[in-house]
Amino acid sequence: MNKGLFVTIEGGEGSGKSTLIERLAHTMQGMGRSVVTTREPGGIPIAEKIRSVILDREHTAMDSRTEALLYAASRRQHLVEKVIPALEQGSIVICDRFVDSSLVYQGYARGLGYEQIWAINEFATRKMMPDLTLYLDVSPQTGLARIARNADREINRLDMEKLSFHERVREGYKQLLLRFPGRIVEVNAEKDADEVYAEAASIVESRLASML
Ligand code: TMP
Predict the structure, then answer these.
(1) In terms of pTM, does the model score above 0.70?
(2) Which residue has a Cα nearest atom 3 of ligand 1?
(3) Ligand 1 centroid from CA 143, angstroms
């Protein structure tokens, strides 16, 4: 049986993660691989309920530590219920966001600090990390303009943050790239979707080839 591969896709709002994930999954399935696509927060019923609590536009009173704990709680449940079983069966799991999002959004952009966010996530994940992370880098201006053009996309509590928050998110990802140079690969997502897809697919394919 094939060994599973845990791939996460990270990036700011409007970086094109969902479109890319669909296309990558299609390609990997075409290569005969079993692929599970999923997202955080969410991916299973309990975690989707936590997602709706976190992202509810009326929950403006939510404390940033409460928010960080809810993300970690939803991550734990999603990991044990969906991600780990799929990897054990040899699937490629492509997940829209994971621990890096908490390190960047809660640790860096909300100012709770990398160490504290790492500590609660270490408890939640028991240090399980992705095999490969693609970071889709886009300026907040481009990303937010894309969201504004996409009528189908929900506008959530975090989209309503100021531009400076989204700029801090981008800076936070740049710092994470320095911390995890082997695992996280940056992809320029200012380019058009076809080019982003081609670059991302070749990175994933070469990682799969190196596992043979
Ligand atoms: P999405 O719009 O990419 O589905 O993500 C939902 C929002 O949740 C997005 O603004 C990023 C945020 N988020 C965090 O702040 N911390 C986390 O750990 C995760 C997974 C998401």
Answers:
(1) yes
(2) 13
(3) 14
